[in-house]
Each structure stands twice: as structure tokens, then as C-alpha cells.
């Protein structure tokens, strides 16, 4: 849910910015990823800059790039005014969501454990 909130392609839709469940998830993730409480509170304060599209987030290139650029790359390019939140957002949005590693393991497992071999 935090990745959904921090993804600029989805964030600037009207209903996303005001959902309490998304903000709650973001607060939980920030507190888990940032061990320094001062930087965690600064990251939470920087959410306002992102939410209201201020400073670098308001640039025309940033607005056009919301849907055209990879979310982690977008944060790298335009998140300089929110450095603590930028670090966390890039960390979250850089994760790949794929089951290909599991599929490779299961395929190997199927070759080793066959009915004939058992």
C-alpha cells in the first residue's frame, strides 16, 4: 500500500491522496525502514511536499513524467526537495514484484523429486 501511495502515476488521482489506510501504511513502512527517529519524522513531514506537488514535484517535466517514467527513477530525478522520503520511496519502488525466482526453484524441485525417483 505504501508503494501504491508513493507511485506518482497513482498518487495524484483524487481519491488516493486522502485515503487514511494508505497514509497509515506509509507511516508504518517509514518507521520500519528508517531506524533514526529524526529522519523518520522528517520523511513524514516531507510527505506534504509530495502530496501537494510542491517544489520539484511541480515542475512540468515531473508532471509529464508521472506516468511515463519508472517510479523509482522519477523519485531519483524529482525528489531532491524531499531527500528522506526520496530515499525510502526509491527503496520501496525499486523492488521487483515477480515470482520467476520461485518458479525456477519449483522447476528444479520437480526435476529432482519425481514419482520414479521416490
TrEMBL record:
Residues 67-116 form the HAT C-terminal dimerisation domain. This is HAT C-terminal dimerisation domain-containing protein. GO terms for molecular function: protein dimerization activity. SUPFAM superfamilies: Ribonuclease H-like. Pfam families: Dimer_Tnp_hAT. InterPro entries: HATC_C_dom, RNaseH-like_sf. The lineage of its organism: Eukaryota, Viridiplantae, Streptophyta, Embryophyta, Tracheophyta.
Amino acid at each position: 500500500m505504501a508503494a501504491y501511495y508513493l507511485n506518482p502515476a497513482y498518487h495524484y488521482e483524487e481519491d488516493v491522496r486522502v485515503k487514511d489506510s494508505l497514509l497509515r501504511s506509509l507511516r508504518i513502512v517509514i518507521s520500519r525502514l528508517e531506524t533514526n527517529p529524526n529522519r523518520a519524522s522528517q520523511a513524514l513531514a516531507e510527505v506534504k511536499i509530495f502530496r501537494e506537488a510542491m517544489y520539484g514535484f511541480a515542475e512540468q517535466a515531473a508532471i509529464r513524467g508521472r506516468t511515463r517514467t519508472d517510479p523509482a527513477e522519477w523519485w531519483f530525478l524529482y525528489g531532491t526537495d524531499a531527500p528522506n522520503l526520496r530515499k525510502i520511496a526509491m527503496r520501496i519502488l525499486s523492488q521487483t514484484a515477480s515470482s520467476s525466482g520461485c518458479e525456477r526453484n519449483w522447476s528444479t524441485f520437480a526435476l529432482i523429486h519425481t514419482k520414479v525417483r521416490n
